């Protein structure tokens, strides 16, 4: 990596125990669901980490690996290292990382109460105390003394296997409310024995694990990942975390990795889009001060720009910077940053499409980087004969598809009916707290220019116009149209989509939003944020609001909606009709209500705008329909559709 760099601290070497890392960028552990069902390493997993390591991070931390699969698995598919048969796969994984010049680190983990009997062949989860997990809808069984002692040994055994596999460093997953954190936390450790009862005894299990693991790994560095605040009443607070960090370093940890949160507060771990950049650095700074140089501190959490990472080191918040999702969206973040090519970084927007995929038990993916989770596959075939392609639609799928085609050697024309590029991204970015999405739009616009795509805005993509280009391939990314509902647009009744797209003004109020899906909820929040009184009307129950939204985002969105003084929620209520400025509603049990409104915004769903597909089929032109033109979805669905379609094209 270049010695001349715009970020000299970030790209300076750093000591970690007896190792020296080439720079201070660490890839944070992120589960991928790419292991096989028995917990073994797969080729997809090796390819995933090889690609991340090739991007230039000083150390790459492999996702949480289970030290005891009978009770410790945290998900249906999880990497493991609790048996000798698993060592060979890990050896391939560690070598793939080291071959790219990064230090290979493995995170060791036991889920404790944060798992479900579904992942444990029906067995009841175990924990320090029988403290219910509402998230997993289960109450664990309290471990007995001998079981706790045995677990210390199981962490050490897994660490010894990791050394045999060739990992150069180990991280203990003591954060995010898993077993190690459960022992430390007064919220989950209600014991009164040598493993709990006061702060000193709550430290006994994590300290014992640190000592035994350290003994098992010799002079390799041991990182301890800690939640510096759990954000639940009675959970670990920053003072307790600082004291624990000092004790864990005294027990043998070579670095403290400062994260936050537990399963009940996932929003403080895999931060949703609304969360401010770098907000956890204050927690890291506090622990770094308490450690007073006894061990380096790794800071993490929504660190997206090299400038923020550099400043965090300069200000003394952290010695190393861990990047999670930023390295999914762009594994070359470190190399680009080191070379000062900051604008070239594909920016993670915290959209959490990746998390949503894991929640649905799929392999890891990224909204912006479709190769994630499939790095073992070849990308789109390169065309040397420069065939012509037309992309119809300048939303996220169309823009990303046009860039992919151009990168693969096609001569690409992109036709967009509106006067500007953006489409669905602009619509999604309009509600409060979602402006990070515009980073991605701006990135795509830049890439379109760099790859020489002929962008024609203000040009509706009709069949004749497309065929005039004589394309060898057409990507239909024409988005969606308003679905016909019981109440039609007209007068004060306007599709919410048109307002979000900026095609129609918002207001005047009071505003009635009809539809309790994600769009309806977000539109209600937007209208309230702009000062209007809002009636959010949905035929569904209140529990079903925004039900298809990503889990972490949904929870924070609903909290804000319910707390907003200007939003009235009318659930199980139908909008019968609108007469002048009066909305006529039918509530539960047929109760009727009349509300005076300045505007009624319809958020009743959209349907694919896929008419061009028929025309292209009739003309015999090879084509693919993607994104909302195929089926309603998120930005990640459209972009990944584009990759699938282009990758699936037959070779020239
Ligand atoms: C898909 C995904 C999987 C994750 N899996 C783990 C994990 O296995 N172990 C862990 O300690 N943290 C895990 N995390 C949390 C990340 O390590 C990181 O702390 C978090 O994403 C915030 O950092 P970021 O904003 O740089 O992504 C995961 C996060 C994501 C997005
Ligand atoms: S899916 Fe979204 S949040 Fe996840 S890495 Fe990609 S851009 Fe970031």
UniProtKB/TrEMBL annotation:
Cofactor(s), names only, from the UniProt record: [4Fe-4S] cluster; FMN
Gene Ontology terms for molecular function: FMN binding; iron-sulfur cluster binding; metal ion binding; oxidoreductase activity
Domain FAD/NAD(P)-binding: 474-621
Keyword Metal-binding included in the entry's annotation: yes
Keyword Iron recorded: yes
InterPro entries: Aldolase_TIM, FAD/NAD-bd_sf, FAD/NAD-binding_dom, NADH:flavin_oxidoreductase, OxRdtase_FMN_N
Signal peptide residues on this chain, from the entry's feature table: none
Keywords: Flavoprotein, FMN, Iron, Iron-sulfur, Metal-binding, Oxidoreductase
Coiled-coil portions: none
Similarity comment text for this entry: In the N-terminal section; belongs to the NADH:flavin oxidoreductase/NADH oxidase family.
Protein name (record): 2,4-dienoyl-CoA reductase-like NADH-dependent reductase (Old Yellow Enzyme family)
């Amino acid at each position: 990596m270049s010695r001349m760099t715009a970020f000299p601290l970030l790209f300076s070497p750093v000591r970690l125990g007896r190792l020296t890392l080439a720079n201070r960028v660490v890839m944070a552990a992120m589960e991928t669901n790419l292991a096989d069902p028995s917990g073994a390493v797969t080729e997809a997993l090796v390819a995933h980490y090889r690609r991340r390591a090739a991007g230039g991070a000083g150390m790459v931390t492999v996702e949480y690996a289970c030290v005891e699969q009978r009770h410790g698995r945290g998900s249906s598919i999880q990497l493991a290292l609790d048996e000798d048969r698993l060592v060979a796969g890990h050896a391939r994984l560690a070598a793939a990382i080291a071959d790219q010049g990064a230090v290979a680190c493995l995170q060791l983990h036991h889920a404790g109460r944060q798992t479900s009997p579904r992942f444990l062949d029906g067995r009841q989860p175990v924990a320090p105390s029988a403290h219910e997990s509402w998230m997993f809808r289960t109450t664990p069984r309290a471990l007995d003394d001998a079981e706790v002692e045995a677990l210390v040994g199981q962490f050490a055994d897994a660490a010894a296997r990791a050394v045999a596999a060739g990992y150069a460093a180990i991280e203990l997953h003591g954060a995010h409310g898993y077993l190690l954190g459960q022992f430390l936390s007064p919220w989950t450790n209600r014991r009164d024995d040598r493993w709990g009862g006061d702060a000193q005894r709550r430290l006994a299990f994590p300290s014992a694990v640190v000592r035994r693991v350290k003994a098992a790994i010799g002079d390799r560095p041991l990182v301890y990942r800690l939640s510096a605040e759990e954000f639940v009443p009675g959970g670990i607070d920053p003072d307790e975390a600082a004291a624990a960090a000092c004790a864990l370093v005294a027990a043998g940890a070579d670095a403290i990795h400062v994260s936050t949160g537990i399963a009940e507060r996932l929003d403080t771990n895999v931060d949703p889009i609304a969360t401010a950049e770098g907000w956890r650095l204050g927690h890291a700074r506090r622990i770094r001060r308490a450690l007073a140089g006894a061990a380096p501190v790794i800071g993490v959490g929504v660190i997206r720009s090299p400038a923020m990472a550099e400043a965090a080191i300069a200000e003394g918040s952290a010695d190393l910077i861990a990047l999670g999702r930023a390295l999914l969206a762009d594994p070359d973040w470190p190399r680009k940053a080191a070379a000062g090519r900051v604008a070239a970084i594909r920016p993670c927007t915290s959209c959490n499409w990746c998390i949503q995929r894991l929640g649905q038990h799929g392999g890891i993916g990224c909204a912006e980087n479709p190769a994630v989770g499939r790095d073992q596959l070849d990308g789109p075939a390169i065309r040397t004969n420069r065939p012509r392609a037309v992309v119809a639609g300048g939303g996220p799928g169309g823009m990303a598809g046009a860039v992919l085609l151009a990168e693969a050697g096609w001569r690409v024309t992109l036709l967009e009916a509106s006067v500007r590029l953006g489409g669905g991204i602009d619509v999604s970015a309009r509600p409060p707290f979602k402006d990070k999405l515009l980073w991605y739009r701006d990135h795509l616009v830049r890439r379109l220019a760099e790859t020489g795509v002929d962008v024609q805005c203000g040009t509706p993509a009709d069949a004749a116009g497309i065929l005039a280009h004589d394309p060898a391939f057409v990507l239909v990314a024409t988005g969606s149209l308003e679905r016909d509902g019981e109440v039609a647009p007209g007068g004060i009744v306007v599709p919410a989509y048109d307002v979000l797209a900026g095609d129609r003004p918002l207001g005047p109020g009071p505003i009635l939003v009809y539809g309790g899906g994600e769009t309806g909820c977000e539109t209600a929040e937007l209208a309230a944020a702009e000062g209007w009184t809002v009636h959010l009307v949905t035929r569904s129950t209140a529990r079903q609001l925004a039900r298809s939204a990503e889990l972490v985002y949904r929870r924070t969105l609903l909290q804000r909606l319910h707390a907003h003084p200007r939003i009235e929620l009318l659930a199980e209520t139908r909008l019968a009709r609108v007469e002048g400025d009066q909305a006529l509603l039918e509530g539960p049990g047929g109760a009727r209500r009349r509300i005076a409104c300045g505007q009624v915004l319809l958020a009743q769903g959209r349907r694919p705008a896929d008419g061009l597909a028929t025309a292209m089929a009739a003309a015999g032109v090879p084509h693919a329909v993607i994104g909302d033109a195929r089926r309603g979805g998120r930005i990640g669905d459209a972009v990944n559709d584009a990759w699938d379609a282009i990758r699936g094209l037959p070779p020239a």
